[in-house]
Specification:
The protein is mainly beta. Helix content is 12%, strand content 43%.
Length: 181
């Protein structure tokens, strides 16, 4: 018996190429949210208690440079590592508190793909295992003007996960409803 692994044709003529990220993204503690999933799509997201989703904004022509997903061959299967690169501007007690918080939890990072208006608009790194702080670097004379942070989710089952509820507008409203007032 032949088992088909692909769900559809690999059609490069109709696919929308990914062109980068919007400046605004979001981060949340995965233990503070209930995620409803269907395959590799999160169809709903609800806060547990008073947990929130927080904004991340990186200005510039190429925000979140270094953000990627790569396959990692394991003994029994191919799994995926997702990396999100963030900048925490400045260096003071507030920034140190943010870095300490990132160092002591597992997070989901929602990135908005530029020029995409379908169910792949909002990609989420960290929704399966949780992205952990891999590196946090402050160098006084760097162009980052603050802390350069790398968050990594290791050994996720899905190559990529997306947040999508009905349409892009409804999905954005869902995220907005989870932001602090």
């Amino acid at each position: 018996m032949i088992c088909t692994k692909l769900a559809q044709n690999i059609d490069n003529c109709s696919a929308t190429p990914q062109r980068g990220w919007e400046e605004e993204a979001y981060i949340f503690d995965i233990e503070g949210m209930t995620l409803t999933k269907s395959g590799n799509i999160i169809t709903d997201m609800a806060a547990i208690g008073s947990n929130k989703v927080y904004k991340v904004k990186i200005n510039g022509l190429q925000p979140y440079t270094g953000t990627m997903i790569e396959g990692a061959q394991q003994l029994a299967a191919m799994l995926f590592n997702g990396t999100a690169s963030l900048i925490v501007l400045g260096n003071g007690p507030t920034q140190a508190t943010i870095i300490n918080g990132l160092a002591n939890g597992r997070y989901g990072i929602i990135l908005k793909q530029k020029g995409v208006t379908d169910n792949s608009r909002f990609m989420v790194i960290g929704s399966e295992v949780g992205a952990k702080l891999a590196t946090a670097t402050f160098e006084s004379y760097s162009e980052a003007r603050g802390w350069t942070v790398t968050m990594t989710e290791e050994l996720a089952i899905n190559a990529a996960t997306f947040l999508y509820k009905t349409n892009v507008t409804t999905t954005q409203s869902l995220i907005d409803s989870l932001l602090p007032a």
